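Friendly challenge for the regulars: who can give me the structure tokens for this chain first? No prize, just bragging rights.
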Amino acid sequence: IRDRYKKMYDKLKSCGISSDIFLVEWFFTLFSRAFTLSTVVKLWDLFLYNGECILFKTALAVVGQAEEELLDKDSEDIIVYIRQCSYKVDQEKLLGTVLLLSLIH
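First reply, four minutes later:
Bragging rights claimed.
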């Protein structure tokens, strides 16, 4: 997050929010609690084919898609938004972004 979304990283840091708050749940559940079943199945296919890099790409895609809206929120609202991202993130756009993202910066 720090390298790709500097403003968002600074916002999280200023609010005292560690990315562990949302990444641990996302990674342990392979996003099954974050998105609809149809999106999760597609992410799992990508994960099984491409490996763990898909987890990081998905997390970055969520943060990138939500960045503008989250920059204006306080810490509690940021956590609520991220935990309810399935209702707020365009999941088709998310999948497209995951496929296009490069982890080499």
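Residues 53-70 form the longest helix (18 residues). The chain has a mean pLDDT of 91. Your move, everyone else.
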